[in-house]
Amino acid sequence: MQIHSGLPESFNPDLYDMIVVGAGYAGSVCARRLAESAGFRVAVLERRDHIAGNAYDYVNEDGILVHLFGPHIYHTYNERVHTFLSRFTKWTDYQHKVLANIHGTLMPVPFNHTSLKLAFGDERGEELYQKLVDTFGENKKVPIMELRKKNDPDLVEVADYVYENVFLYYTMKQWGQTPDEIDPSVTGRVPIFIGDDDRYFPQAPYQGMPAAGYTAMFEHMLDHDLIDVFVGVDARDIFEIGETNVNVCGKCYGGEIVYTGPLDELFNLDLGALPYRTLDMVFETLDEDQFQPVGTVNYTTSEDFTRITEFKNMTGQVLPGKTTIMKEFSHAYEPGSGQTPYYAIIDPKNQELYERYLDRVQNLTNFHPVGRLAEYRYYDMDAVTASALELSDEIIACHA
Which residues form the UDP-galactopyranose mutase C-terminal domain (predicted)? Predict the structure, then answer.
């Protein structure tokens, strides 16, 4: 597949049935589906100098495959998503495990049977575990906020420990907010697991890592005779948004537009900026085989960073004598700073601002916002893929 750097002077939007803005999951899935299922000629415009969006990975100068924008752990319950992505990659059998460093002791998270005994001692931990089983049943996930609502003193003891030692400080570092200020869709992602399975996604039937890496998967996905990919191209430089149409390169564009970027930036933040959290990634290569026992260790009671990722533990790469780790520091996103907007800060005020931007594109002909940024929500990789597949279905049906 040829990836073009920049947009040639000869670029003619009228040669394309669809323009896709962004070469991450949402954009790449739509490009592939429409090219092969509807025969669309597709131009993919990517602002960065690479494809794969935040899933981009590469081999660093020490020969270690790393994820530039933080660890991406593939897991899904969605068979359609898994079948589609599996066309473009083989998978390893990686099963993600996370430990929390709680006052120097490494405990599995989500907090589980093993964690209880490490935190409270074998005897008391077993008593508390049996109370959880009696109340909720085995192999169940219980969100922290739900557990704290119980009046049982034993359950309150567990809830208070997990809340204070696993959730509270980590959440404040990650979001810059107290837990009661955060949308329940976020707090609900931090459950207790009533069972012995130490995997982070114990019930997901499809898990693993792309055997050759994420970037290679995207290269295969975009490798189609009807798809042209242009990197280093900011769509805002060639888009002009009207009342009902989008001009591209000064011409009224009559094809489909799939837009995966931030809606506020499309309008130069003229209603105000949508808030996000961003991350500073600090990479370090160490002269040792292995730094930590699992791919990710969360620092929930100490340190300024939120977690350390060790990539060889996830990819299964064998490279004796060296390993690369990455620390993550969370802080507020500043538009125009070159930072990456990672996590939408979802609250009623911000949602209302997003809806005002969304209203301005609803009347645009054949303009489709899709993905984590364009929809201003938190999406796992499989959910973005599912959303893009559904949008593709709609566009294909309209042209059938």
Answer: 166-378
